[in-house]
Amino acid sequence: MNKSGFSLVEVALAVLLVGIGLTTIFALFPLGLQQSDGAIQDTQEAMFVDYVFNTIEGNCLTNTSWTVWSDDVKFVNMALKGIDSNLVPGNGTWQNYTEDGIVGRRVQCTNLADAIEYPDQGALGFSRYLRYELKIKNMDRSGTLKKIEMSVKSGRYGKFDFPQTYLTRVVYLGM
Fold first, then answer.
1. Could you count the other beta carbons within 10 Å of the beta carbon of residue 107?
2. What do you get for the CA distance between the two ends of the chain, in Å?
3. Residues of 84-106 as b/e, b for ≥16 C-beta within 10 angstroms?
4. Long-range Cβ contact pairs of 74-82 (< 8 A, separation 24 or more)
5. In 3D, which of 85, 63, 83 has the Cα closest to residue 74?
6. What gap in Å lies between CA 77 and CA 88, rounded to an integer?
7. What is the pLDDT of residues 84-115, one digit of tens each?
8. What separation in angstroms does the CA of 91 have from each of 101, 119, 158, 161?
């Protein structure tokens, strides 16, 4: 009599190999989800910085007043005109700071209370939060070139350590 088929040992080995393969594949799903969430956070950070920088650069291109350009307080008000007020932390307090011997202005939104929702999803979906620090300072003694630096970190909680930092520069054209 000719017996065809697999023995119990062969079937057990096949099931073991399939089980190991499936376990390996299932172990990769959480890592993939984590990487996907990180990519979403990076994209939202970059979108926020792009929004702020484009607004500042656009406002600077239309400024023709040296009085506004050379006064740090007036410059900040002019540069940020048009930015959604919900994106300004707390009471929007700007502080002086010194870096490389040059005084600049900065606003910090780095703690839990100041975290902003961006983009504001409202009732449409899951909201994400950002914290940031925005610095504006002169790059030269004449004040015609300004450096704008923005550090951004996703999430409301935890330390504001290792944020992504973005830079741009604006020049007074003096039309």
1. 20
2. 102
3. eeebbbeeeebeeeeeeeeebbb
4. 75/105, 75/136, 75/146, 76/105, 76/136, 79/55, 79/136, 79/148, 79/170, 80/55, 80/56, 81/55, 82/55, 82/58
5. 63
6. 12
7. 777 775 556 788 888 888 888 888 888 877 78
8. 28, 20, 22, 23
Segment (H or E) for 50: helix 8-62
Domain positions in the chain: 8-171
CA distances from 54 to 2, 73, 82, 108 (A): 80, 20, 11, 19
How far is residue 150's CA from residue 131's CA, in Å, rounded to a whole number? 10
Whose CA is closest to 167, among 41, 38, 57, 78?
57
Q: ω into residue 119 within 30 of 0, thus cis?
A: yes
Q: Which of 134, 97, 128 is nearest to 115 (CA)?
A: 128
Helix (H, G, I), strand (E, B) or coil at 82: coil
Helices and strands (DSSP H and E) totals, the chain: 3, 6
Query: In order along the chain (175 residues), what is the average pLDDT of each group of 10 residues?
Result: 82 96 92 90 91 92 90 88 74 78 83 79 72 89 90 86 91 80
Give this prediction's pTM.
0.80
How far is Cα 175 from Cα 168, in angstroms, rounded to an integer?
21
